[in-house]
Design brief:
By secondary structure, the chain is mostly helical. It has one domain. It is about 80% helix and about 0% strand. It contains 8 helices and no strands. α1 (about 5-25) runs antiparallel to α8 (about 160-175), α2 (about 30-45) packs parallel to α4 and α4 (about 80-90) runs antiparallel to α5 (about 95-120). The radius of gyration is 18 Å and the shape is elongated. This is Prepilin peptidase. Belongs to the peptidase A24 family.
């Protein structure tokens, strides 16, 4: 069986496992991610051209990390979500990692709106979004402590959004007629 199929199978197992644990306990275990990194590097080392394959994989991991890190910095997601997207990028490579990040942001936004709708926390969500975005457009000193005192609208299992997006991208590889 080609290495690409093994990588896709492992990625499928990873994102489904991560989504299930994120839904159940709101954490993505580092052990899942470490095992995935070891598996990807090992599979690429068994490839006929290991260095370019490993370079592409690391580039994808860097893209996933770089595009999700700002959301962690502003407390928009947990570190496990950033590490999961970096690991997904390791499997997908840089170009597909960009796609995965953009589609995951969209899926996550839809999930957040649904959660806010069902919990009826519109005013808290608006205040949190305002305190998050307002310092970015203001010039001059701002008070960051005010944004820390707002009540959370609730934690979101972002691993689910990452999994749905990743599975959709993988499905497009094998069933090209699937599209938006």
């Amino acid at each position: 069986m080609p290495i690409s199929i093994w990588l896709d199978l492992l990625l499928t197992v990873l994102v489904v496992s991560a989504a299930v644990t994120d839904l159940a306990i709101r954490k993505i275990p580092n052990l899942f991610l470490l095992l995935a990194w070891c598996a990807v590097i090992s599979l690429h080392l068994a490839d006929t051209a290991p260095l370019p394959a490993i370079g592409t994989a690391l580039g994808g991991a860097l893209v996933g990390f770089a595009l999700f890190l700002p959301l962690y910095v502003v407390r928009g997601m947990a570190a496990g979500d950033v590490k999961l997207m970096s690991t997904v990028g390791l499997f997908l490579g840089p170009a597909e990692a960009v796609q995965a990040c953009i589609f995951t942001w969209c899926a996550g936004g839809i999930m957040a709106l649904v959660m806010i709708l069902f919990t009826r926390r519109w005013s808290d969500a608006y205040a949190n979004l305002r305190s998050l975005l307002l310092p970015m457009v203001r010039i001059g000193p701002t008070v960051q402590a005010a944004s820390l005192t707002r009540p959370s609208v609730g934690s979101m299992p972002y691993g689910l959004a990452i999994a749905v997006t990743t599975l959709w991208l993988l499905a497009q590889r094998y069933f090209p007629t699937i599209s938006l």
